[in-house]
Amino acid sequence: MMRFFLGISLICTLLAAAPAFHGVRTFIQSDGSSFQAHMQGDEYLTWIETADGKILVYNKKDQNYDYAVITDEKLKPSGEKYIEPNGSNLRMAQPFRSVSKEKLYKLWRLKRQKGLNN
Asked: Torsions phi, psi of 8, nearest 5?
C-alpha cells in the first residue's frame, strides 16, 4: 500500500507544470524564415516575446507565429504573421500593433488566479 501511494505521489510530481523555457530559441515560420525570441509564461498562459517586445502566439491554422491579440480572455493569433524587422523587409509601413504587456500581464494574473482557485 505504501508503494502505491509513493507511486501516485511520484506520478503527480512528474505531471506538475513548469514555467516555459526562458532562453532564446529560434522559431521557424511556414515559409522557412526564422527569428529568435523568448518563450514566456507558465501552465496558465504561454507566449513568445521578441527582442523588440512584440507578443506572439502560434497560429495552428497557418502554421506561423502571429502577433497576439486578447479575445474573450484568451491570447489568440491575430492572423498577422510576424516578420522580423531588418533592412531588407521594411515593407510594413505600419507594423501590427501587438497586445501591450500591461494587458498581457493582466490576463496572465487573471488566468493564474482562476487556476489557483480551482
From this structure: -60, -40
